[in-house]
Amino acid sequence: MHRVTGVFHIKNLYCDGYSILDMCMAPGGFLAIALSCNPEAQALAFSLPRIDGGHRVLLPKRPSVTLKFLDVTMLAEDMGLSCIPNEHPDAGNFLPSQFDPRQSFDLIICDGQVLRNHGRADYRVRTEASRLCLTQLTIALNHLTPGGTMIVLLHKVEALATVQLLHTFDKFASIQLFKHTRFHAKRSSFYMLATNIRADSEDAKTAIERWKFQWKIATFGTDKDYCGASQLDMSDVEVILKEFGPRLISLGRRIWEI
């Protein structure tokens, strides 16, 4: 990925020192490459504890990396929610904020996937993939240095939710897609590489608020509530295709070929 795109090289010149955030780090290959490309950078990384089904961390310990073992989908306060209903199945498991409001990062990696061995409450089974994606995107964009870069693992370029996400990022960032010709050849997975992100733009702020709302519904609402919050009207679909259809084809052609 880096040989083809150079995406791991931090280009932000408007701050003192570089910083990296890895939302779902283990085993640590992506963060290892990011640090090798930016040896002076400091990094904050989250990883699901192995006792909860997480991967083993293979990245050697180093003073420039702060590693926290936790489930990022439970970062309720960082998702804008501080009051949890006592009757909720996970009432005692939600986590306090892990970020200073002014904390920002130049490069953020969002490549977490739902793990088969991760034990979780029944209500989470249907919406877990969405909750994980929404948490990563929200926290990342909310703490990204303007002009920074995000690397995001996605699936199925042509899926409606993916199209909407690409359309959203295309409004405030320069995006390209990458898919490895061997390791991802038979899977639907690919990476969105978003650079020069205008994280302080109104479009970015609107996206953050929408993702927070969808996460809240996926976490505390009913299945019916979640479907209503996540599905688009056909009129919305038509607008997206009219505005973004040709760009989508241009972005996706190489991914579909692979």
From TrEMBL:
GO terms for biological process: methylation. It holds the Pfam family FtsJ. Residues 16-194 form the Ribosomal RNA methyltransferase FtsJ domain. GO terms for molecular function: methyltransferase activity. It comes from the Eukaryota. This is Ribosomal RNA methyltransferase FtsJ domain-containing protein. It comes from Talaromyces stipitatus (strain ATCC 10500 / CBS 375.48 / QM 6759 / NRRL 1006).
